[in-house]
Design a protein that fits this description.
3-stranded antiparallel beta sheet; Transcriptional repressor NrdR; transcription regulation
């Protein structure tokens, strides 16, 4: 790390802390030549490999814009979209890969989007899972219904066992 004051090619780390919920590291440095201190913020960059082979920096804004189209006319706020983009980025960073295929990002969006709005999920999935016919939509809807019914049954069983455990008067 070059000193921003005297351009000396080396510096000593005095203090390190995580910031931005662990997404970056704030380092306090000191130059051994001029003894001045300065701060650096280090982040791991994510790159997206497009279908064409071109590489570009990861952008949460692109996720929000892509999902916004699927959410048109749905009760989804801009805050909901921002949280979704954050969740997707956190999941992608947790994978440990510095370069991600654009298709992988689309698939990573599906889970959080499904939790947010099922209709928007179906719209988005129809592109990323290459739905070609009505049968593809019907199959996806059947899976959603089965999983919703299973979740409802699990909630009912949990509520039933909680009421059995409650003391009676």
């Amino acid at each position: 790390m070059h000193c921003p004051f005297c351009r000396h090619a080396d510096s000593r780390v005095v203090d390190s802390r995580t910031s931005d919920d662990g997404l970056s590291i704030r380092r306090r440095r000191q130059c051994p030549q001029c003894n001045r201190r300065f701060t650096t913020i280090e982040t791991a960059s994510l790159s997206v490999v497009k279908r064409s082979g071109a590489t570009e920096p990861f952008s949460r804004e692109k996720i929000v814009n892509g999902v916004r189209k699927a959410c048109q006319g749905r009760p989804v706020s801009d805050d909901d979209l921002a949280v979704l983009a954050q969740r997707v980025e956190e999941n992608l960073r947790a994978s440990g890969s510095a370069e991600l295929d654009a298709y992988e990002i689309g698939l990573a969006i599906l889970g959080p989007l499904r939790d947010l709005d099922e209709v928007a999920y179906l719209r988005f999935a129809s592109v990323y899972q290459a739905f070609n016919s009505l049968e593809d939509f019907e199959a996806a809807i059947t899976v959603l219904r089965a999983e919703n019914e299973a979740a409802d049954a699990a909630r009912a069983a949990t509520a039933g066992s909680a009421s059995e455990d409650a003391p009676t008067a």
